[in-house]
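dumping this here before i forget
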Amino acid sequence: MRWFFRSGKSRTSAVKGGTAASAAVRVFKLMIVDDSNIIRRRIERSHQIDALQLVGTAGNGVEAVEMFRKTDPDIVTMDLTMPQMDGIECISRLVSLKPSVRILVISALADKATAVEAMEKGANGFLNKPFTDRQLNEAIADLLK
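structure:
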């Protein structure tokens, strides 16, 4: 099934010939996890995909698991280096709660072994810090495919 990305959950729109048809619109719930408030706000402001609805943010893995249980997001952006519970452990826990969750790791840790470990635990993509708005939006769009 192919989804059309627009704001809102559903919409009636005019089609050729002037008749109305219902267009299915899929909204994906987004949760942002990073110990830096600056990075959390940057991701929140920078994403340009109408199909994303921010449902929560967390500053560490413990908060993320709690928020995840409450909000049931479809997409998660995840830092790796955080207090209380790191991103690798958090990825494992989120995937065990919801195997279909899509996780984009956004981290300054750019070594290959870390990226491979995150992917083995269930992450679906990796974006290095610093990143541009374009890189962020392309990486999130890839998760939605």
